[in-house]
């Protein structure tokens, strides 16, 4: 889900954005109209920087972005 749609969902559901220290990523949970609980992860510049640093630490050849255009624009500042 693109970042803008994820943030819209966060606002629409009045969910609380949280940070998972172990996974180094933002997430939120909400319950839909059918009483189904959903867990949504959000990739932002802070979590993206962690993944870039991890790739560097393991001397990986690069990183992969699923598709361009749906990301948090702030990630380009950490690349």
TrEMBL record:
Residues 1-79 form the GH18 domain. One of its GO terms (biological process) is carbohydrate metabolic process. Coiled coil: none annotated. Pfam families: Glyco_hydro_18. InterPro entries: GH, Glyco_hydro18_cat. PANTHER family: CHITINASE DOMAIN-CONTAINING PROTEIN 1 (PTHR46066:SF2), CHITINASE DOMAIN-CONTAINING PROTEIN 1 FAMILY MEMBER (PTHR46066). This is GH18 domain-containing protein. The lineage of its organism: Bacteria, Candidatus Gottesmaniibacteriota.
